[in-house]
TrEMBL record:
Organism: Polaribacter reichenbachii
GO MF term set: ATP binding; glutamine-tRNA ligase activity
Enzyme class: ligase
Enzyme nomenclature, EC number: 6.1.1.18
Protein name according to UniProt: Glutamine--tRNA ligase
Length: 561
């Protein structure tokens, strides 16, 4: 085997084998088929990356197809959000398709299956059908309506389409084998009656095709060569092939290529959930502010929190393609966004938990503008002016009256460097009635100005602090996010509901003080607040009230909790 082939994942091996066995490369066609019943989440990025990645690798078209078969749960809002997310990730689809566009063709094929004796109208209740379906260890029993005549089935199915019956009164089922080991093959439903308006077809239909019937035949209509889906669909492959093979006999002259279903493992992430139904519950019960809440694992939530397409795509590539289910540590996703923002985000100064420092020997009323690079380690970021004055804010945790030798920040009698400014020494402090430090009195060395080149400025000092000038600081709201769930696998407990693991402290709202250069920051812009982490401007931000989200800290702080 060549080195190139060794590096292929198993899906690429399947495709290469098909090409070697005579499949024309121009017949390759892939698709990403979301159901528009919720927002895409981080778990979907693997499927998106696989399908669109193969399209890029083989220069083959990739369809974006919405499997919109359930009008009770689907909305145009979800369609629009899915399109925005995929475009934001940097992928382009060849055709925008909808299973609802194929409703007439699916109905016509259902008629042919009825005529062929392979589908029938059942008039049992859903509970009766559930009981007669059997169990994994017991075969099912035939419906009493299984042997209706073709003429009766056609008349009833036509009546279903024309709205002559109530919801649940009749269904259309495929006639396969009630004793099959695979329970999905035991006469599965194909159509049910639903008096719901569809977001695209309106009230044109009152019968809607089931997912298993629709999905595979939509692949067939679009002539998808490789239908790639996650492992939970592996038991469905036998039914997928049954529908495909029977329809192929009717339509091979118009649709010569029968698609092939293959499965890969899902992307499961620790400390979160990957069920759209469960995520919807978080939205509906106001646990979060919406689908795009920055604590949500949705792509829109990650985008709002400050994640980048490059970081997410790198994460998916690192996870890779596999056949076995596993759980990926969320720390890997956080590492990827740190890695990307470390290369791209300008460094600025902000103080989130301030204590005032008064530089007693700095002239009262005087101020100056200091040069500050946006990145000291990379070229091309540029610089800005940062105002300095007699009173500044630093972080409370950066000062202690007394500390051991390993504390390299400000303490009484010791000297530290102020980033882009001067060296200061703490001389005394003022406390409130509770013993909390409310002000620190320091002196500065005017010969230590950063960038001045003086011998004094080259003096070795172990601590460097960020700061902002009290007079010039701008106030902003900072939203600091923690993980939404306290448990590594919140929906894996049989005896507990995942809602029991909600982190009550997943959001902390802070009044912060920022350097004035951030006054003109625009929505979505990302920054490193030096020594604190990576932050971006939230959608709620205005020129009157800046709002920043904490994307991620500079290092993983969760492991120590």
């Amino acid at each position: 085997m060549s080195e190139e082939n060794k590096s292929l994942n198993f899906l690429e091996h399947i495709i290469e084998e098909d090409l070697a066995n005579g499949m024309p490369k121009e017949d390759l066609r892939f698709r990403f088929p979301p159901e528009p019943n919720g927002y895409l989440h981080i778990g979907h990025t693997k499927a998106i990356g696989i399908s669109f990645g193969l399209g890029e690798k083989y220069n083959a078209p990739v369809n974006l197809r919405f499997d919109d078969t359930n009008p009770a749960k689907e909305e145009q809002e979800y369609v629009d959000a899915i399109k925005e997310d995929i475009s934001w990730l940097g992928y382009n689809w060849a055709n925008e398709c909808y299973s609802s566009d194929y409703f007439q063709q699916l109905y016509d094929w259902a008629i042919l299956l009825i005529k062929d004796g392979k589908a029938y109208v059942d008039s049992q209740t859903s509970e009766e059908m559930r009981i007669q379906k059997g169990t994994p260890t017991e075969v099912g029993t035939n419906s009493p309506f299984r042997n209706r005549s073709v003429e009766e089935n056609l008349a009833l199915f036509q009546g279903m389409k024309e709205g002559k019956f109530k919801e649940g009164e009749h269904t259309l089922r495929a006639k396969i084998d009630m004793a099959d080991d695979n329970m999905l093959m035991r006469d599965p439903l194909m159509y049910r009656i639903m008096y719901k308006s569809h977001h695209r077809t309106g009230n044109d239909w009152c019968i809607y095709p089931m997912y298993d019937w629709t999905h595979g035949e939509s692949d067939y209509i679009e002539q998808i060569s490789h239908s790639l889906c996650s492992l939970e669909f592996k038991p469905h492959r036998k039914l997928y092939n049954w529908f495909r093979d029977n329809i192929y006999e009717f339509s091979k002259s118009n649709f010569p290529l029968p698609p092939k279903q293959r499965e890969f493992s899902r992307l499961n992430l620790s400390y979160t959930i990957m069920s759209k139904r469960k995520l919807l519950k978080l939205v509906e019960e106001n646990i979060v502010s919406g689908w795009d809440d920055p604590r949500m694992p949705t792509i829109s939530g990650l985008r709002r929190r400050g994640y980048t397409p490059a970081a997410i795509r790198s994460f998916v590539e690192t996870v890779g393609v596999s056949k076995r289910e596993n759980v990926i540590d969320v720390a890997l996703l956080e590492f990827k966004i740190r890695e990307d923002l470390n290369k791209t985000a300008p460094r600025v100064m902000a103080v989130l938990d301030p204590v005032k420092v008064v530089i007693t020997n700095y002239p009262e009323g005087e101020e100056e503008l200091l040069d500050a690079n946006y990145n000291d380690y990379e070229d091309g970021f540029g610089s800005r002016k940062v105002p300095f004055s007699r009173e500044i804010y630093i972080e409370k945790e950066d000062f202690r009256e007394e500390a051991n030798k390993k504390f390299f920040r400000l303490k009484l009698g010791k000297e530290v460097r102020l980033k882009n400014a001067y060296f200061i020494t703490a001389n005394s402090c003022t406390k409130d009635e509770n013993g909390n430090v409310i002000e620190i009195q320091c002196t500065y060395d005017p010969l230590t100005k950063s960038g001045s080149g003086t011998e004094e400025s080259k003096r070795k000092v172990k601590g460097t602090l960020h700061w902002v000038s009290v007079k010039h600081a701008i106030k902003a709201e900072v939203r600091a996010y923690d993980r939404l769930f306290l448990d590594e696998a919140p929906d894996s407990h049989k005896d507990k509901d995942y809602m029991e693991f909600i982190n009550p402290n997943s959001l902390e709202v802070i009044e912060a003080y920022l350097e004035p250069s951030l006054q003109t920051a625009e929505k979505g812009e990302r920054f490193q607040f030096q020594r604190l982490g990576y932050f971006n401007v939230d959608d709620d931000s205005t020129s009157e009230k800046l709002v920043f989200n904490k994307t991620v800290g500079l290092r993983d702080s969760w492991g120590g909790k």
